[in-house]
Design a protein that fits this description.
heterodimer; A: alpha/beta; Glutaredoxin; Rossmann fold; Ubiquitin-like (UB roll); 5 domains; five-stranded mixed beta sheet; four-stranded mixed beta sheet; 24 helices; 19 strands; globular; B: alpha+beta; 4 strands; 13% strand; binds flavin mononucleotide; binds iron/sulfur cluster; binds FE2/S2 (inorganic) cluster
Chain lengths: 636, 152
């Protein structure tokens, strides 16, 4: 492959790639995203290579390792093309059967298919309910692409938007298109991307920067990671188009070092793009020059904030600075710098290819396009989902996510990461977009969506986020450093059963000051987890404070483990598993817990066979006197 | 030590001695040694022309850096939000009990270092623990024993 010197040469290459590829040739795609990797996808891939070879099929079947398909719950995912047969939970042992049955006999291995609630098997990936209700404009290509092979991206129409922008559009035209599409930032704030681009373009100074924010600091989200790992060229193409519109010739991709595969795949992508003349000088013969450097972030949530991120790129400690000087005007080395989130950039090629109107037709009045969410927590189908803006929470959690596992009750869903809030059941029919989520006291954030069931304590959730933020506050300004710390102290008191009535008042007061006086959005929004849990679950706070009771049975200091004497079957499993020997009992004897010795580790509850269900959690009530030692189990 | 200096030189050369590459240089030193030896930091200060105090400012600000040698086996427990609601704190209790070290610490025999991390991108397995790159989904006490015993 040589350098491409014009739009026509790119098209010619695309045609060559497509002619070279036989659409009917079987192709086994193996998800190698982080989730599936954790399930052992590499062993699955190796087993395929081996088995295909030992059956002499190596020239007749392609094997492709792809990025995350989204349905991580069911990893390792294997999809076999052209039929699009989707196998779930594939283990290395399954491979010989898949090869002989599906690749050789052309039949389906039933037991590896998706099975719906009625026991119906579903063969094709796109018909599985988890996928069926999504619109995967951005994330959908992940499953078709080997991220280390630029040809895969080009075969699917990759870099056509860049070539269109460079050869048919002026920078102003590109900017107008993005403005008209009303693309809003996917990194948290929802600021209109086109407006920000224009500010940077119009700011004085020859050298300007465009930057990808791949710091993904939300502790419960991994969509940016999966997009970068699985389809790095889509983000890169968006960035180059943005640079062209803004008049920038240098870019940065700020990736957290915890994502080594994203860094590796990006480096490969940059190299391949340079070789083809899609990056570097005189891109596609247009005369436009642009190149990108990768900057690895060393792990600080606050460094994802725009001004902090830019100081970090300069090699200094990434602390925020006051907002009155906008980074769009004066950012990296005081030069105009436009920062957007990974997903924001990945939307750009779509807008250029299909036009602003097409894009603006998707979504709601104020929020256009789709959004990718990390749908995780207490939900059946954990994974990454992409839906049009405006889909209701209920549709996302129940139709796509399959609802709550284990017959438990839904309690709340948390969005917006540490700056967001919890949303209770009464708002399940809320359409998900930037403005609606803000109205109920949460926010879109970068796309974390954590489902919580009745076993989740809302005070503990607030404490979790405040504890996270206390560790992440950079300490530069007092209201944040001290305010968050004080909130944490109050929440710790509440969870530890040492709170007084004044604590609720404190929790009402501190956030007000923080919101007004903190320097950056970390501090300003730090109270949201507290305020939103207080707003919808005040009764849980009150139970902790007044009754010393944790209704969800989570806060260790407020609970006791207890064995119900009439249910205990003397199986002795808990006794053998208790790490501190707090359980008394024996053959045929009713078991009891010595509350003095018990460290509340929860092991007995975990190991007690479900059919007995003898171990329970008590909170806010006296622990009943244990039956006298040596009482025998009455067997009926 | 001589070796630290040579290695640091090599890393800095890769970035052409550019001052702004400080964080990248430190990440590479950390990656090579699993911690930041003092000699390496002094060399970096010399070569990049950045005061040592400023280097320590950066090295203590970011979580990726360790100023203490790390154990032979690295154990991470995910405390991301999804793992949290699925019981990560209890897993962490079990792990600290087993290894007899707290997060951020290294055992005296240099066998284990324990740390907590945020979302690892495999929430479906939550709560997750990673030992030397191997993922373990919600290990029980017994499984923890087996995993720990396998580490020399
Ligand atoms: C404490 C803090 C952390 C942030 N972390 C991230 C992050 O990890 N990723 C991200 O894209 N934006 C993050 N942001 C938002 C950025 O400041 C910025 O608004 C965003 O990257 C702009 O891109 P967008 O307009 O495309 O969303 C963070 C903001 C704050 C205050
Ligand atoms: S609000 Fe917090 S994180 Fe932001 S600058 Fe102030 S101390 Fe640092
Ligand atoms: S909670 Fe833990 S310490 Fe207490 S009785 Fe059960 S197993 Fe033993
Ligand atoms: S990692 Fe395989 S589906 Fe997400
Ligand atoms: S929160 Fe633990 S892997 Fe995502």
């Amino acid at each position: 492959m040589g350098r491409l010197n014009s739009a026509a040469e790119l098209e010619k290459l695309r045609e060559e790639i497509l002619t070279k590829r036989d659409p009917n040739k079987p192709c086994v795609t193996i998800c190698s995203g982080t989730g599936c990797h954790a399930y052992g996808s590499e062993k699955v891939a190796e087993a395929f290579v081996e088995n295909i070879k030992s059956n002499g099929l190596q020239d007749k079947v392609d094997i492709r390792r792809t990025g995350c398909h989204g349905f991580c719950e069911k990893g390792t995912l294997v999809v076999i093309f052209p039929e699009e047969i989707c196998y779930l939970r594939v283990r290395p042992d399954d491979i010989p059967e898949i090869v002989s049955t599906t690749l050789i006999e052309k039949k389906v291995v039933d037991r590896l298919l998706y099975e719906d609630d009625d026991g119906q098997k579903i063969t094709h990936e796109s018909e599985i309910p988890f996928y069926k209700h999504q619109s995967r404009m951005i994330f959908g290509n992940n499953r078709l692409i080997d991220p280390t092979n630029i040809e895969d991206y080009i075969a699917l129409g990759g870099y056509a938007a860049l070539s269109k922008a460079l050869s048919e559009m002026t920078p102003e035209g590109v900017m107008e298109e993005v403005k008209e599409a009303n693309l809003r930032g996917r990194g948290g704030g929802g600021f209109p991307a086109g407006v920000k681009w224009e500010t940077t373009r119009d700011a004085p100074g020859e050298r300007k920067y465009v930057i990808v924010n791949a710091d993904e600091g939300d502790p419960g989200a991994y969509m940016d990671r999966s997009l970068l790992e699985g389809n790095p060229h889509s983000v890169l193409e968006g960035l180059i188009i943005g640079a062209y519109a803004i008049g920038s010739h240098e870019g940065y991709i700020y990736v957290r070092q915890e994502y080594p595969l994203a860094v590796e795949n990006l480096n490969i992508a940059l190299k391949q793009a340079r070789e083809l003349g899609l990056l570097g000088s005189d891109i596609l013969g247009s005369g436009f020059n642009f190149d990108v450097k990768i900057h690895r972030g060393a792990g600080a949530f606050v460094s994802g904030e725009s001004s902090a991120l830019m100081t970090a790129i300069e090699g200094r400690v990434g602390e925020p600075r006051p907002k009155y000087i906008r980074t769009a005007v004066s950012g990296v080395w005081d030069r105009p710098s436009n920062l957007n989130n990974v997903e924001t950039w990945a939307n750009v090629p779509l807008i250029i290819n299909n036009g602003a109107r097409w894009f603006a037709d998707i979504g709601t009045e104020g929020s256009k396009g789709t959004k990718i969410f990390s749908l995780v927590g207490k939900v059946k189908n954990t994974g990454l989902v992409e839906v049009p803006m405006g889909m209701t929470l209920r549709e996302v959690i129940y139709d796509i996510g399959g609802g709550i596992p284990g017959g438990k009750k839904f309690k709340a869903v948390q969005t917006g990461g540490p700056s967001g809030g919890v949303i209770p059941e009464k708002f399940l029919d809320l359409p998900v977009d930037f403005d609606e989520l803000t109205k109920v006291g949460s926010m879109m954030g970068s796309g974390g969506m954590i489902v919580m069931d009745e076993d989740t304590c809302m005070v503990d959730v607030a404490r979790y986020f405040i504890n996270f933020l206390a560790g992440e506050s950079c300490g530069k300004c007092v209201p944040c450093r001290e305010g968050i710390h004080q909130m944490l102290k109050v929440l710790n008191r509440i969870c530890e059963g040492e709170s007084g009535d004044e604590d609720l008042e404190l929790l009402d007061e501190i956030p007000e000051v923080l919101g007004d006086a903190a320097l950056c959005a970390l501090g300003q929004t730090a109270c949201n987890p507290v305020l939103s849990t207080l707003r919808y679950f005040r009764d849980e706070y009150e139970a902790h404070i007044m009754k010393r009771q944790c209704p969800a049975g989570v806060c260790k200091a407020l609970i006791n483990y207890y064995i119900e004497p009439e249910k205990c079957q003397a199986c002795m499993i808990c006794l053998r598993n208790c790490p501190v020997g707090a359980i008394d009992g024996g053959k045929n004897l009713i078991h009891t817990i010595d509350q003095e010795k018990c460290t509340k580790c929860g092991t007995c509850l975990e190991v007690c066979p479900t059919r007995f269900g003898a171990v329970i959690v008590l909170s806010g009530v006296e622990v009943p006197e244990p039956v006298p030692q040596g009482t025998e189990v009455a067997r009926g | 030590m001589v070796q630290d200096v040579a290695q640091t030189d090599e890393i800095i050369d890769k970035y052409k001695g550019d001052k702004s590459s400080l964080i990248q240089v430190l990440l590479d030193i950390q990656h090579e040694n699993r911690w930041l030896p003092r000699d390496a930091l002094m060399r970096a200060s010399q070569r990049l022309g950045i005061p040592l105090s400023q280097i320590y400012h950066v090295a203590t600000f970011y979580k990726a850096f360790s100023l203490m040698p790390r154990g032979r086996h690295s154990v991470s427990v995910c405390l991301g939000t999804a793992c949290q609601v699925r019981g990560a704190p209890r897993l962490l209790d079990k792990v600290t009990e087993k290894l007899e070290i707290e997060p951020g610490e290294t055992s005296e025999d240099m066998r284990f270092s324990l740390e907590t991390v945020n979302c690892l991108g495999c929430c479906a397995l939550g709560p997750v623990m990673v030992v030397d790159g191997e993922y373990h989904s919600s290990p029980s006490r017994k499984e923890l024993d087996v995993i720990a015993d396998a580490c020399e």
